[in-house]
Amino acid sequence: MSLRLYLTVMSLITAATWATVGLIVTQTDPAAVEPSVIVVFYAAMALALAGTFAVIGLLARLWILRKTFLLSRQVWVSVRQSFLLAGAVSVALFLQSRALLTWRNGAVIVASMTVLEFIFIALGGIFSADRHRPVRSRELSLK
User: Fold this and answer.
1) What H or E segment, with its residue span, contains residue 72?
2) Predicted structure pTM score
3) Is the separation of the CB atoms in 83 and 47 below 8 Å?
4) CA-to-CA distance for 13 and 8, rounded, in angstroms?
5) Can you give the residue range of the structural domain that contains 106?
């Protein structure tokens, strides 16, 4: 899969999930809604945030790193980090909707996501031998 196709597909899926979030926000009454709709709302919002963060994160990585690492590695890292960040934002928003979010809860959320990222980094070194291999120009095609 080329980078352009990946970005196009991710952008379309992300737009669809943002449309789902928009429909839920505009068409439902939060006070009289069933718990299943709230679950769907938070799931759609988490996926929309993850897609947005993945696309922005990948583009930022490509711009900052400038062909230093494998493109597939950068895609995996940006998707992983986008899901962690989207999970943290979703949990924080859920706690805020219940008036339970304090700075201590926020610090615990950030600390737990940081620990998870460190675990992924540590385990990534075990399972991938090519993580520091320089990229050849033909591996980063923008077809």
Assistant:
1) helix 71-97
2) 0.80
3) no
4) 9
5) 3-139
Q: Which residues are CB-contacts of 116 (< 8 A; sequence separation ≥ 6)? A: 84
Helices and strands (H, E) in the chain, number of each type: 4, 0
Q: For residues 94 and 87, give the distance between their C-alpha atoms in angstroms, rounded to a whole number.
A: 10
Nearest to 124 by CA among 85, 70, 87: 70
Sole residue written with tokens 């998870």: 116
Which run of H or of E encompasses 121? Answer: helix 103-127
Hunting for tokens 């959320």 — which residue is that?
109
Number of separate domains in the chain: 1
Note down pLDDT in tens along the chain; length 143 residues.
788 899 999 999 999 999 999 999 999 988 888 999 999 999 999 999 999 999 999 999 888 877 667 777 888 889 999 999 999 999 999 999 999 999 999 999 999 999 999 998 888 765 454 455 554 544 555 55
Quote the tokens at residue 106. 């926020």
